[in-house]
Task: inverse folding
């Protein structure tokens, strides 16, 4: 068994912190709910610190794949345990760390079956971390499914509106996606004749014929696209998001949908670049429809969570549009948008979660004037909504600008349609903000308490992250560029 | 000294004699259980000591090699595990307990002889020894009468398939003038274009399709799973399936990658998977659901065998190991939930997460493993099987199998939902598990997960085992 490590295995340490957290939680008696929460917090903090460390110490002047850990797993099939960090996955690893940590904090008031909840959350996050850092198709798929199956119990047990229906719909949809991904992965490994699942080896130009790349890319685009919320495969996403408990919505919309988009990037685009170029017009059309559709459907919703869920469909459309441009800017914008949208949606769901916990409603007509009842909770939501509109000063502004500039160059019509829709999205978010937080106050909720500091902490962290990368976008764009530019340069044109 | 290699067979024969004597003595359930548990545990040890031995007996009709010994190990393990479930054998009249163990032992013995037989008549005799023991085991259940329906169905369809198989064996002999598998392997590939040899081989396979409950030989499975005592079903669902997979791999490997045979098997695999999964969607009884899931799994396992390449056979062997572990844990839950030996409807799992968190966890792991969700051994088995099929360019077959996997997740998730989500209407008492059972459960959960994450050594074992086939 050959083992290759470049230095201390920080990436595996992140995974181990999740596994350790899971094991410790399993051994805590189920009555000790507070202890479970503190343990979860501690281990999620370790994962967060490690991901920040990896993010900051990545050598941007050299670029390429760093923090490589490679262990031969099954020789006869060419499977490796192969982790690495580059400009593409580092923002997402950081995102996962942030959303996980703030998600645990957000669920601090959870009552009932606490131990199981956090155990499943750790499995979910373990899968997501593993997925982002893995450079082996076999493990990529394993992590992919590991991150999916806890969604069912998490939504079905702790969820709210139509939870069993939502959970089942989500579960079957995303696993139907994985039913396309697995044959695709095995197909690639076998037709390459290389007997390996190693992405770096499979990326070698000439490993696949253009026809094979088109075929495989289509499988991955549909398979991962279901999870990424690509229109018209997104129908599970609003139902699932609405049904999920707060922190699961956060992880799900914030991170898991990026798993889908990142799967298209890492497996589809990396291994089958010719297929990517071939299918990019289709991707652009579907992405634009997704952006426009998400906004128009969102305009008519009366349930706050549905509004946010449809805005996710629309924002994931922006990621798809960026990917479909086949340009360096588009790709960087898409990766940045994945990060920015993740933080933003996490904040939206997190602030909504508090309001729902207290008022037990998320219907816009029932609320109203909330800014006078809960000024802090409201302002968190309003800030997130502003970020969602793409107001300068937040990370999502830079991401969206980068995507739209490159989209306008490549697809002038679709690009302008998408920008037009985005203007409408301001209307849509402002409508929600106006009806929910201003206007006539609903006296029924006048006595409710505002967010205490301890519960406000996760939301403040998320806002701080958005503002930090909004004011200093180069902190992230430079890093993404170290991955994107060599990759685009290496594409055979 | 040469006879030491036959240790497992001799040991299980001796064990059968012990139970025969016990069945003549006064009935004592506790004594029978203690004896069975001890002897079965020792049986695993005896079998494992012979794993690396090789030898040939009875003028070449019987061969001991790594392939047969791996399966004997699995069989003795399966036997031991099933005996572990018998501490509370409520489903069977107390005076028949020693007969129950007796038939269980002879059945295991028959299957052990089977995996070592490399001559068609020996093979048939060994098969009948195990079959007749099972015919006797099914109606042993006490109570309602559904066991009689099950027993008659099983017996009639069993002897009908035996007749088909005998006809196939005769044709094979007619076509090749030999009954030795080693010679068949040489002669058969050149003869498979003749209807006699082809149909002969196909009919011979039918005997094991029946054991595996592959479509169209599945009709017995749902009633027998439901009608037989829970422990008998557990044995039927694990040990016999493993043997059937082993024998199918051995017989199919004689054809050396014949494409017509592969096409027939592909059709059977697809129908079996699809039929099993679709019918399972509407089942209410947990054992019946597992029966249909077994029909579907027969299809998945066949994919490895019909690929007819080394990876495929190794994948099938791996799948057999995985199948043993994951099916057993599901039946363990059935047995423990139904402490009075009745059947378990899926809705009766309600509230299991409070009654016994460990059992609920075991069910979750077992069911997700059957559903093929990583990181479980069931996923790795499916992955290996699909990988082998892809090497033969059966892309569509893999895609259909994957779609089937998604369909099957619907009913597996119903089981999980019942155990974790639903609350029972009346307050049911917690299920007390003894420390040894709890340890057993944890060990199997660990095996399922570690085997899924780290399949390296098991797969190496499977790869070396199938060298004897090729």
Result:
């Amino acid at each position: 068994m050959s083992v290759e490590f470049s230095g201390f295995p920080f990436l595996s340490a992140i995974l181990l912190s999740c596994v350790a957290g899971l094991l410790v939680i399993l051994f805590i008696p189920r009555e000790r709910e507070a202890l479970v929460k503190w343990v979860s917090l501690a281990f999620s903090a370790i994962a967060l610190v490690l991901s920040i460390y990896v993010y900051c110490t990545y050598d941007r002047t050299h670029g390429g794949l760093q923090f490589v850990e490679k262990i031969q797993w099954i020789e006869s099939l060419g499977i490796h345990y192969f982790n690495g960090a580059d400009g593409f996955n580092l923002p997402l690893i950081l995102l996962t760390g942030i959303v996980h940590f703030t998600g645990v904090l957000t669920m601090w008031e959870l009552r009932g079956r606490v131990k199981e909840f956090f155990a499943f959350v750790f499995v979910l996050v373990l899968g997501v971390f593993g997925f982002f850092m893995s450079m082996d198709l076999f493990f990529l798929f394993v992590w992919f499914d590991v991150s999916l199956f806890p969604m069912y119990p998490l939504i079905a047990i702790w969820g709210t509106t139509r939870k069993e229906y939502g959970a089942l719909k989500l579960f079957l949809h995303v696993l139907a996606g994985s039913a396309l991904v697995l044959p695709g992965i095995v197909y690639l490994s076998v037709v390459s004749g290389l007997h390996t699942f190693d992405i770096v080896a499979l990326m070698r130009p000439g490993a696949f014929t253009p026809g094979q790349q088109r075929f495989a890319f289509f499988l991955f685009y549909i398979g991962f696209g279901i999870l990424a919320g690509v229109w018209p495969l997104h129908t599970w996403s609003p139902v699932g998001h609405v049904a999920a408990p707060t922190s699961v919505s956060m992880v799900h919309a914030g991170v898991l949908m990026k798993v889908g988009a990142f799967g298209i990037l890492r497996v589809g685009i990396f291994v089958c670049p010719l297929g990517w170029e071939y299918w990019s017009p289709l991707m652009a059309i579907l992405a634009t429809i997704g952006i426009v559709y998400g906004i128009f459907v969102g305009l008519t919703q009366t349930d706050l969570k549905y509004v946010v869920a449809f805005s996710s469909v629309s924002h994931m459309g922006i990621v798809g549009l960026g990917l479909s441009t086949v340009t360096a800017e588009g790709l960087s914008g898409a990766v940045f948008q994945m990060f920015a949208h993740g933080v933003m949606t996490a904040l939206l769901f997190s602030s909504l979660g508090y309001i729902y916990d207290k008022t037990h409603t998320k219907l816009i007509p029932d609320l109203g004037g909330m800014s006078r009842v809960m000024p802090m909770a409201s302002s968190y939501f309003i800030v997130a909504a502003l970020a969602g509109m793409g107001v300068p000063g937040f990370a999502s502004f830079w991401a969206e600008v980068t995507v739209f500039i490159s989209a306008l160059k490549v697809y002038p019509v679709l690009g302008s349609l998408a920008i037009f829709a985005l203007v409408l999205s301001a209307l849509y978010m402002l409508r929600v903000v106006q009806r929910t937080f201003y206007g006539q106050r609903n006296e029924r909720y006048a006595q409710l308490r505002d967010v205490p500091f301890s519960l406000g902490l996760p939301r403040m962290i998320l806002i701080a992250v958005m503002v930090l990368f909004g004011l200093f976008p180069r902190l992230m764009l430079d890093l993404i560029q170290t991955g994107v530019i060599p990759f685009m340069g290496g594409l055979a044109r | 000294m040469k006879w030491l290699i036959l240790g497992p067979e001799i040991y299980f024969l001796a064990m059968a004699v012990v139970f025969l004597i016990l069945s003549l003595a006064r009935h004592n359930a506790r004594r029978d259980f203690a004896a069975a548990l001890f002897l079965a545990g020792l049986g695993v040890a005896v079998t494992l000591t012979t794993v690396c031995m090789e030898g040939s007996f009875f003028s070449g009709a019987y061969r001991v090699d790594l392939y047969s010994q791996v399966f004997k190990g699995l069989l003795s393990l399966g036997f031991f595990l099933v005996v572990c479930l018998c501490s509370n054998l409520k489903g069977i009249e107390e005076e028949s307990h020693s007969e129950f163990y007796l038939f269980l032992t002879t059945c295991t013995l028959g299957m052990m002889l089977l995996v070592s037989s490399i001559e068609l008549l020996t093979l048939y005799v060994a098969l009948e020894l195990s079959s007749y023991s099972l015919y006797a085991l099914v109606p042993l259940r006490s109570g309602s009468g559904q066991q009689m329906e099950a027993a008659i169905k099983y017996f009639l369809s069993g002897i009908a398939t035996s007749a088909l198989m005998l006809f196939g064996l005769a044709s094979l002999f007619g076509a090749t003038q030999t009954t030795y598998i080693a010679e068949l392997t040489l002669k058969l590939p050149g003869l498979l274009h003749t209807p006699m040899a082809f149909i002969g081989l196909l009919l011979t396979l039918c005997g094991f399709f029946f054991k595996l409950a592959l479509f169209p030989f599945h009709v017995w499975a749902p009633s027998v799973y439901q009608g037989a005592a829970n422990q008998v079903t557990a044995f039927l669902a694990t040990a016999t399936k493993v043997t059937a997979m082993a024998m199918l791999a051995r017989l199919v490997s004689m054809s050396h990658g014949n494409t017509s045979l592969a096409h027939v098997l592909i059709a059977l695999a697809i129908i079996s998977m699809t039929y099993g999964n679709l019918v399972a969607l509407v089942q209410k009884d947990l054992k019946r659901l597992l029966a249909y899931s077994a029909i579907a799994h027969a299809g998945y396992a066949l994919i490895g065998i019909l690929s007819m390449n080394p990876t495929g056979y190794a994948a099938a062997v791996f799948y057999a190991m995985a199948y043993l572990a994951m099916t057993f844990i599901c039946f363990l839950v059935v047995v423990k939930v139904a402490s009075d030996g009745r059947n378990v409807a899926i809705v009766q799992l309600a509230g299991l997460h409070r009654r016994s968190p460990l059992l609920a966890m075991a069910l979750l792991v077992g069911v997700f493993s059957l559903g093929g969700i990583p990181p479980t051994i069931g996923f790795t088995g499916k992955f290996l099987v699909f990988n082998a099929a892809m090497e033969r360019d059966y892309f569509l077959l893999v895609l259909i199998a994957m779609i089937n996997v998604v369909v099957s997740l619907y009913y597996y998730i119903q089981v999980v939902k019942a155990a974790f989500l639903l609350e029972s209407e009346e307050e049911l008492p917690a299920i007390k598990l003894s420390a040894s059972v709890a340890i057993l459960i944890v060990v199997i959960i660990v095996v399922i997960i570690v085997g899924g994450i780290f399949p390296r050594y098991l797969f190496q074992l499977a790869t070396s085992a199938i060298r004897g086939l090729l």
About this structure: Residues 292 and 420 of chain A are 9 Å apart (CA to CA).
